[in-house]
Each structure stands twice: as C-alpha cells, then as structure tokens.
Amino acid sequence: MWKSSVKPVAAAEVREFDHEADVVVVGYGCAGAAAALDAQASGADVVLLERLSAGGGSAALSGGEIYLGGGTPVQQACGFDDSADDMEQFLLAALGPDADAEKVAAYSRGSREHFDWLVGHGVPFKESLWDSPTWVPPTDDGLMWMGEAAHPFAAAAAPAPRGHRVTSDGFGGKVLMQVLGEAVAKAGIPVHTDTGAQRLVTDVDGRVVGLVARREGRDVTYRARRGIVLTTGGFADNAAMVATHAPVLAGLPVNSDGGDDGRGIAMAQAAGAAVRNMAAGQVGITLVPGMAVRGMVVDERGQRFINEDVYPGLIGQAALFKHGLRVWVVLDEQAYEEVPEVERWGVRPHHVAETVAELEAEIGMPDGALQTSVAEYNRHAERGADPYFHKAERWLRPLRAPFAAIDVRRGMSAPEYGDTGGGAEVFTLGGLRTTTDGAVLDHDGVAIPGLYAAGRATSSMHARGYISGTSLGDGTYFGRRAGVAAAGLR
Amino acid sequence: MWKSSVKPVAAAEVREFDHEADVVVVGYGCAGAAAALDAQASGADVVLLERLSAGGGSAALSGGEIYLGGGTPVQQACGFDDSADDMEQFLLAALGPDADAEKVAAYSRGSREHFDWLVGHGVPFKESLWDSPTWVPPTDDGLMWMGEAAHPFAAAAAPAPRGHRVTSDGFGGKVLMQVLGEAVAKAGIPVHTDTGAQRLVTDVDGRVVGLVARREGRDVTYRARRGIVLTTGGFADNAAMVATHAPVLAGLPVNSDGGDDGRGIAMAQAAGAAVRNMAAGQVGITLVPGMAVRGMVVDERGQRFINEDVYPGLIGQAALFKHGLRVWVVLDEQAYEEVPEVERWGVRPHHVAETVAELEAEIGMPDGALQTSVAEYNRHAERGADPYFHKAERWLRPLRAPFAAIDVRRGMSAPEYGDTGGGAEVFTLGGLRTTTDGAVLDHDGVAIPGLYAAGRATSSMHARGYISGTSLGDGTYFGRRAGVAAAGLR
C-alpha cells in the first residue's frame, strides 16, 4: 500500500531533531495557511511544511467560494438579512442527514467573525449578487446562491445567498491562496517546501511530539514542542485508498493538486487516530447550471432525478452516487440561447436533433424514454408546475424543437475557467475524526495528545451531502481553531 | 463512543491469565464455529467465546443460503453444469465493481471442497431447484437462482443457480447453526458464553497474545498461544458507529442477533488494524420476489430502476442507496393471483385501485408519474420487450386493471418465515482488512502477528454489490482458513 511504513517512530529512536518549532503545520493549502497564521498569532513559533514545491493545495485550484453567513457586509450590501440560526439549519439539511452538528453550530456561529478575519487578511469580496444557479459566477460577483432558495432547502431555513466568492478573473481559489500566502510571508512563518511528512514521532505515552519528513531523498525530522496540525488534504490521488474506502469514486478523474495521497490520514491512523465517513466524496461534472436549470437533467433512461435549480454540486453528487454519471442535460434552442455567452463555459451541445425521438435515439436511450419525460415535463410546465421535483416556477417552460443534449462526463472547453479537461472530476470528503478545535480523536473518542488536523484530511462537517464553499470555509475556519489549539491556548 | 476503552492492554500488565488456549475464537456465529472446528482439526486446542448466552449469531437468523458452485452434487442432481471460473466471474460482477479479486478467486476455487466440508459436518441440502426469484425458497428446495441468469449477469458468466439453501422448515440459518453447534460439541471445543471480548492484549513487539473479556461484571483474561480469531460480526447494532461510517444505514431497523456492536472491529483498529469499505451495507425489504417479477418496482416518482428478475437483495440495495427506500411493488390482480399462497409470505397489497391514476394518487405520487411508467412498460411488454431494464421475456406481460401496490418499508406478516416485524432491515458489510487466510492487516498492509478475523467483522469479498449466500459462505469458508492459519499451519 505504501512504499515506506506509515507507522509512528518512537521518540527514543530520534537522536536529534533537525528542526524544532512550537507548532508544525503539515500541508500548505487553505487550512494549513489558516492554522499557521492563527497559531503564530497565538504566540507560538510555527513552521509550515509542504510536500510539493509551492503552497496552494487543492484550494488554489478551486472556484474560490467560501460559505459564510449570519449577515456579512456583503450580504447586507446586496439586501439580504441572515442569521447564524438560519445558516445552521440550512447546513444541517444540505450537508446531512447526519452532518456533524457540533461543527455546523460552531461554524455558523463563528461565520461573521471569520468573514472579518478573511477580509482582515486581505481577501477581497465584491458586494454584488449573481442571481442564477452556477458553480462559480462567470462575472466577478462576490455573492451567489448555493441552493438556499431551492426545494427542499427553502423550507428548512429562511433563504439567503451565502456563497461568498473571492474576487477574481475566473476561479477565485488562486487569489485566496495568494492573499493567504502573502499573510504567511508577512508574518515571517518559515515554509519548508518539497518536504513530505512520512511518519509521526510519538513518545512513550503516545503523545505526538514530532514527525519524520522526506526532502530531496533524505529523512528530515521535526520536533513540535506544542503540537502538530495535519492539513494534508484528502486521498483522491491514492487509487488504492479510494478503492478501499470510497469505491464509488474509484477510477474517475481527480480534482486535486496531485498531493492528495492520503498519507497524512494514514500516518495519523497508524498512530491510533479514528476516521469518519470515508466513503464520502464529491464530483464536478460538465453541467452548465444556466442550461440545466432552463432544461432537464436526466439519466440513461431519460428520467429526471432532481430539481435543476439546486446547487449544481448536488446534481453532481446524485449523478455520481445514484446514476453512475450516465447523465445528460436536455434543453431546447431557446434555453441554450437564453444562457449568456459568458455563462456557457465554452460548452456546446454534444447532441442536437429536431425531435425528442431523434435525440433519444442518438444518445442511445430506450425507445420512448426521453419522449415520455419531456412530454410529462412539458405538460406540467405549461401551467408552471413541477410536481415531480418542485423546480421553481421561474425556470419552468415547455421545451420545444429543436433539442440538444450535453453529456456531463465530457470535458468543458473553456480553459480560462480552470483546468477542466476531465469532464467529471472527484475528490474525497472523509478523513480524521476531530473535535471543533481540531483535536484528532482515537478509537475511544479521546484526543491524541499533540495531534490536530483540519481541512480535507478531516471529515469535517459533511455527512451525506456537500455544498461548495464548505471546503474553503471549514478548511480556513477549523484550520484557525486547530492552530490556536495546537499553540496551547485552548 | 465506548463505555470502556477499546485500546490494547500491554501483556506486562496482565499478571496471570485466567484461561489459555492455542487459539481463541471470539464470537460464535457461523464464522466462529468454522474457525474453531478447523483450528482444532489442525491440531490446536481451542476455546470459543460468545458475548450472548448462546451461540448462533446473525447466521442463525438468516435464510440459510450458502453461495456454492463449481459443480456441486446438488447442482449436478438438478441438471446444471458449473465451473469455478464461471462462479468467479459472476461474483466479480455481482459483488463489484472492486470486489476483492483474491478472495473471490480463492472462494470460487475452494467452493466444491467447502460444500463437502459442510455436508461432512452434517449440513443438509435437498437436491431440488426453486425456479423463480426469491429471498429463500418457501419450500424446502435446496437450490435457487441468485440472479445468475438475469441482466446484466447472464453476460458475465455462464448462468447456473448457486444458492444452496440449508434444508429447513422456513429459514435455514437456524439449522446451519444447530448442525455446526453439534459439530463443535462433538469436537469437545469449550464454549464460554456471556463472555464479551473488550480489549486485545499485545506484547512489546505488537503481537496479539491474548484478550480481556467481560463476564458477569468482571474481567476475565485469555492467553492465545498461537492466535486470536475475531468473528465478532458487523456493527449494525452500534448506532454511533453506523452514523460514523455508514450514514446511509443510520436510523433504520437492524437485522442482527443484537450482538453486532462492532467492538471486535474497534478493538482490532485500536491495535493497529486497517478497515475497508465501511460504508457498505445491505437491506432486506418487504418485497415478495414472485410479485415484483410479475409487476414493476418503482420509486416515489413512479419510475422503475431495475430489472425485477435480479436477486431481490440487489433491488433492496438499489432501493436503499439510490431511492431512499421510498419504493413500491406495483402489480395487477392477475400477477398477484399467479403467485402461489406459499410464496406470498403473508404480504397483502397496501393499496388497491381500479385505475393507475387512482393508485398513483393514493400512494401520493405526482400526477402522471405512475401512469406514464405503466403505459411505457405495457407498450413494450406487448411485444415481450423491456428496453429499459432487460427483464427476461418470461416475466413480461402488460399490466391490466385492477391494480395493487406494496410499500417495501412495511413489515411482512408471516412470522413463520422469521422475524419480519420491521419492514426494511439493514446490516453492515464493511470491516477489518484481511488476507485470504484471515490475517488482519495494519496500515502498512502488513499482517498483525497473532490476529485473524473472518465473517462480518471483516470486509470480505464484497465491494459495491452484495448477493445473499456470500455471508454464510464467506463466513464459513474464510472462517475455516483463519482457523487453520491461527493454528499455525499456514
């Protein structure tokens, strides 16, 4: 499974540590940056390790949405009231059932302050709303809906848009990491790149006191006087680990910076850490939300399975876990034309046809499958209703010839919006069990002394559902808390 | 999470062991019985521990199907040729993708000999075939199809029925455990009941040398000179563990003897063991296969999602993981009447109606949902085709008024076929990572010395799919191998 052991090394076996700090943060994505910044702000001296040659992590590849609410200045400027309670209720519904209620509560209550922390470090958010379903606004708008007003979530909590998108020309993750990187540099936190953590070092009582890393082919040891924070990311790049724990994700293209090998999780497990919800994952698919919401999303039997106005990540999740990614967006010419060029992400139909029967045959669906679905959709749409899935009336209109379809497994074709070569791309959401302060728990549910974690190395808030913005959001928020805790102040 | 620690105890802390044996087998279900029998047959002296007041485990509650093939005498008597290769290919398809190929190969090649072992210990199989989809034959027939001839499995391997059902008046699991229990008694293997294993005992090198159990409120220690075999079952009874690892199963009624608390898995994990595929599970639902196959299985949108002639466990799995168990069997009067009384399991329709529109409204489906599906089904069935899901022509016929529907979440009402109070009932399939000889692997993929496991405490052969008969089958087969290995002969 691993080329070298992931088991902890006994402290007695380390004659002399090469480096020493109060807090050693492992992995320089958004969670690592946040942990390092707040550990240092808490008075600890910190060193930040990164396996690759530069920081950024998967965060730098992301759209740059951060899920924030409770009445942020951006929400207020766009005319939305919000409360921590509504945010909490929405997250429990959207990330659950069985979301981590304690973390969701902490995150929702801490959100306003966390917004200020981000802005204080220089993270830019524009005070304008993108008002249509999207993965990321194709403009520089700073606020977006994450399905809060869609069925069934509108009934769970008073809807307010909470997707805060870091201002950027395209994907915002790179801007977030640039800003946090500047903050790390300004704070004078040493960053050791090309340094991959291999094993933890534990003392006779099981306390984590350091780690062994690999740099330029040789072992380098770090002593952590107060604590280690693992922010090493998920395990999407480790095919064996994916097959072992998240088989539905196996064999699919991966969304990561290439460093999500799961070793941070495994080396903590080998030191006694428990994990949670390891089968969880998310998928980005070639689905233009502006097209999907004006048309239908169907499976290989031509059957709809979701209201197309939810956050598109939920469509991706249903497509992956329930429909084997054999999913198409079906729309008509009018719907396609209504989507502004900027919002099309370069996606053009993979199939076009004058009749639904022809389209169905061209895709290879059973005779009558799509015809039946479109007829039913149209019959109800005529009167502005969607009794099947409750898409909002705003988006309902009978579909008329000519028709088109987009296969969600095929790649997008607008490289300016990030690397989208792969069509469907997955990442993992399961990981280490941690407290709200990032303490890593063992199989008794007891914190392992000296060991903390945040970001995708942990299982964080999600259970069955996932909403974008919670990765950068919980990575930075719980990263900060882990940094403070590792510094010994909690 | 646990009332008392699951962490291993250092051997140095145990002054004197209360009991001692070459091999200590923990858990007296089918895997434990098989492990104990073959460990002893290999020359080891053995003690068998059981947490409850009597052996049996979940095996005793089961239908009594054992998946066996490669040309058993029962298959031959019923006129079927079979080969280990075909069995292997079927299992790879039905338990996968990503089934444990090494275990499937070993199991398929060992199947003929394993049949002889079972029969040699007195397990009865009648040489007659039940030739219609079923959970368990309602007669005493000894051979049944497990979907081998259904789409898409018929294309994966030459079909032969491989469900070998222990002869019984009703469910066969109790007979299997009675016979194995007699064998254990005859072999003179001591059984310590009311003895729940709590923690492993490890020496300074990490070798497992014993365990601490709890009996009548006090600790009892066991030394294992050669090895410990954990056959402690799954974790379906542990709500916290289910929520942590298999959230889709959370909150549902459980199929177990009440002893599947997962402690065996957790105490091995705390001693460094790795796990696999912990989110996997299976569900038994109130679905009479004879009715389903003559009608349609639909979700809450009235949409079919599977060919109804597969093994019903696969319908249950799709219903649970993809359709939230909001699933109905829809059939007409003729179909219902065609199902012999003995095959009805006491199930009567929960809804009846003269028209599909009425049935649809009564169930609460969207207007047009079921009407559309039945019309499509009938249109194709008229010409003996099912282009949507490829159900065999034998079962295709247009459905005609009057109509009926059965809600799969409601309980069956024939207690003579086992305890069926709960409607849908789940169990877990994930567990410890083991080799084909039952050695428990650590996070480096290296066997933990002295520790073996089999049955539902392990993740065994399954990945995404599950077929009944592989629980009793792999439990007994890999239980035997673990017993032999623990005895030191492999």
From TrEMBL, chains A, B:
Keywords: FAD, Flavoprotein, Oxidoreductase. The keyword Oxidoreductase applies. Pfam families: FAD_binding_2. InterPro entries: FAD-dep_OxRdtase_2_FAD-bd, FAD-oxidoreductase_2, FAD/NAD-bd_sf, Succ_DH/fumarate_Rdtase_cat_sf. The keyword Transmembrane helix does not apply. Its cofactor is FAD. This is Fumarate reductase/succinate dehydrogenase flavoprotein, N-terminal:FAD dependent oxidoreductase. It comes from Nocardioides simplex.
